[in-house]
Description:
The chain is an alpha/beta fold and 191 residues long. The chain contains six helices and nine strands.
Amino acid sequence: xxxxxxxxxxxxxxxxxNRDGGRDRFNIMLFxxxxxxxxxxxxxxxxxxxxxxxxxxxIEGAEAKGWTNIGEALEQAxxxxxxxxxxxGTSNRLTQTVYCLTDGRPVLPQGNPVKAQxxxxxxxxxxxxxxxxxxxxxAEIQVHTMAFGNDADEVALKEIAQDNFGLYRKIYSDSDxxxxxxxxxxxxxxx
Length: 191
């Protein structure tokens, strides 16, 4: 429930920021044993009220369905941003940031969801960095990570963010998550 509330708050902030012709584009991916783009393929305009409504409905209808396949999810998100950047011929920084919100430990699905296994931090870090590495051997796209609840692997999320020029935050359930998120996004946007 906390993760959904956080995602809805992010959508609200995007809507407010882009109401008067802002240029942010986004998409939302659910990841468990597999991955699913909630708004279809590609990036969507945050200034479009129908996209914002679709995002809200998709988040409200989302359900947890299994494991936490964070490696595949971040690879797909990085590839989407890289493809959009190449396709648009722009180096616009607005399309070069991934925000990963999770409440689970990274796992590697083995075909059968029952046989999914927790994977080592080094394996997941290498997988994500390999997807994000540019010609200079550095991360191309910022990856910010947020941990919700007690099951998230905070060390892995910190390392993923550090490897990819991002920030990490633990969002505490006994505090005002909206205030924590606003502070996090303000800090992340300053990088």
